[in-house]
Design brief:
single chain; alpha+beta; globular
Length: 280
């Protein structure tokens, strides 16, 4: 399916992005066109995925500061359902990456619902991003059609765009182990029992696996209490692990099963002040 990606700063593009927001999330959490238009003129980035003259996808990010460094925070990415089987989402992120690198930035951040397995596979496996923060109910109650009825727990994703890893992932050059391969050697912090959260393990070791539901949207439609049970299980597992110094660095799949691969991060060592000459 032919499409093109265009970085845009005009009002018509901002209006198109608003319409895509409404089609994806509904009207409840829409960033208005005038706000988009104002921010792209002071360094925000907006790109559209176009088929002919029709906008069918977009990405939007803006400047921020995280841990004393400038970043771009990617607030929204959406591709309409008929085009999700294409590489449009990847190409929108690639255009965003190019823009940020050209402007001297090396990190892009965004938030992600850890229960969304499709997004997890895209963000970690295909883009090479990782998560080192888990926040409970990050946005508070969200009434839009994708988030209503669930606490808005989120990963804060970091995308180190100036690395070889990201280059290789965007080109599809890395071989990623399957979940079946990994679970022969890596213990589970949280296992799945069919479509339910199952047994928990110890928060110990250099590598851990945390299972996810394969299709949380189908679960929410059938059994909202079960969906919330998954949220609670992730708070106890993912939330605790990331607070204890782990990071989610990969999302592994095996047929219709998925799990995060967590690794223990090295301890942070503060830089020591230089000693003045003539002292010791």
């Amino acid at each position: 399916m032919d499409y093109r990606i265009e970085a845009r700063t005009d009002v018509a593009a901002c209006n198109a992005a608003v319409q895509l927001q409404r089609e994806t999330w509904g009207d409840a959490v829409t960033v208005p066109s005038n706000m988009l238009f104002a921010t792209v003129h002071v360094g925000a980035f907006l790109a559209l995925g176009l088929v002919g003259e029709d906008a069918v996808g977009f990405v939007y990010s803006l400047y921020g500061v995280k841990d004393w460094r400038f970043v771009h925070h990617s607030h929204m990415l959406a591709v309409l359902p008929p085009f999700r089987a294409t590489n449009m989402a990847r190409d929108l992120k690639s255009a965003q990456r190019d823009y940020c690198l050209e402007h001297g930035l090396e990190v892009v951040t965004w938030t992600m619902d850890p229960l969304q397995s499709r997004n997890a596979r895209f963000n970690l496996a295909k883009l090479g991003a990782y998560a080192a923060e888990y926040h409970e109910d990050f946005y508070g109650e969200m009434p839009d059609k994708l988030n209503a009825g669930m606490p808005s727990d989120r990963f804060v994703m970091e995308w180190p765009i100036a690395t070889d890893r990201v280059d290789h992932r965007l080109r599809g050059e890395d071989r990623i182990a399957s979940l079946a391969d990994a679970e022969r050697e890596v213990p589970y912090l949280l296992k799945a029992d069919d479509d339910r959260p199952g047994a928990g393990g110890k928060l110990d070791g250099s590598h851990l696996l945390v299972a996810t539901p394969w299709d949380i949207e189908a679960i929410k439609k059938k059994d909202m209490a079960l969906a919330r049970a998954w949220r609670d299980a992730h708070r106890r597992s993912l939330g605790s692990a990331l607070k204890a110094g782990y990071a989610a660095v990969e999302y592994l799949v095996d047929k219709d099963r998925g799990a995060y691969l967590l690794v223990k991060r090295p301890p942070f060592v503060e830089a020591r002040p230089r000693e003045e000459e003539g002292t010791h």
